[in-house]
Amino acid sequence: MKRFFFLTVLTAFLVTLTPSQANAQYTYYDGVGMRGKVIVGGNVGFGIRNYNQRRWVNFEFSPQVGYRIIDQLEIGTRIVYHLEYAKSGIIDPGTGIPQPVERYSCNYLGISPYINFEFWRGFYLQAEYEGVYGFAKKTSGGESIRAGRWYNNLSAGVGYRYYIGNFGFVYIIGSYNVFDLVDETQHEWALSPYNSPWIVRVGLCVGI
Questions:
Q1: What domain count does the chain have?
Q2: Residue 79 lies in a domain
Q3: CA-CA distance, 183 to 125, in Å (whole number)?
């Protein structure tokens, strides 16, 4: 029930501010700075994949808020929502007879505290824990089965911020789920909602 992770969005911001403007409250390098210590923003994502004779549709909405302890060090949390949906029309390979249509959906909701440190010209390191509860429903032959459980994800990775004047930044980060190194069949707490240990996100944040 792991899901495909998806790239992108929130990059449609046109601004006229430039990194050379001198009214930034904090300066990182070469005049690049950002106002305020509170960071707000987030990311949304959408993806489609075919897996196990099913077409899976995924959606994510994840607002976040952070606080810069110093210019380069930020702590915060994301509110995480995932939707995963699939519909199958499996054909028996032996008889060629279509099998009953199955529908599967799961809503994941939780939080994801994080800490990151910008070490060089927009590049930063980040560690993040994600705990979500999944509400799953499977319908087959007119019968529905419902279930719910917790999923955990501990990731570490490298990201890059492109600063938009003193307004904020667009970011991209790639990280690896450390819990994927644990045998989840023996340790259920290591079960992740993702079908891959590699996670990529793109988002937008502003300083206030």
A1: 1
A2: yes
A3: 26
Number of H helices, E strands in the chain: 0, 10
How many CB atoms lie under 10 A from the CB of residue 135?
A: 13
**Amino acid type, 34:** M
**Angle of CA points 39, 78, 26, to nearest 5°:** 15
pLDDT in tens, the chain (208 residues): 444 333 333 333 323 333 333 344 455 555 566 778 899 999 887 777 666 666 778 888 899 999 999 888 999 999 999 888 887 766 666 666 666 677 888 899 999 999 999 998 889 999 999 999 988 887 766 667 778 888 899 999 999 999 887 888 999 999 999 988 887 777 777 778 777 788 888 999 998 8
**Residue 178 in domain:** yes
Query: Is this model's pTM higher than 0.85 or not?
Result: no
Alpha carbons within 13 angstroms on the beta-carbon side of residue 176 total 4
What is the domain-level CATH number for residue 98? Answer: 2.40.160.20
Range of the domain at 147: 27-207
Task: Give domain status of residue 100, yes or no.
Answer: yes
Is 16 contained in some domain?
Answer: no
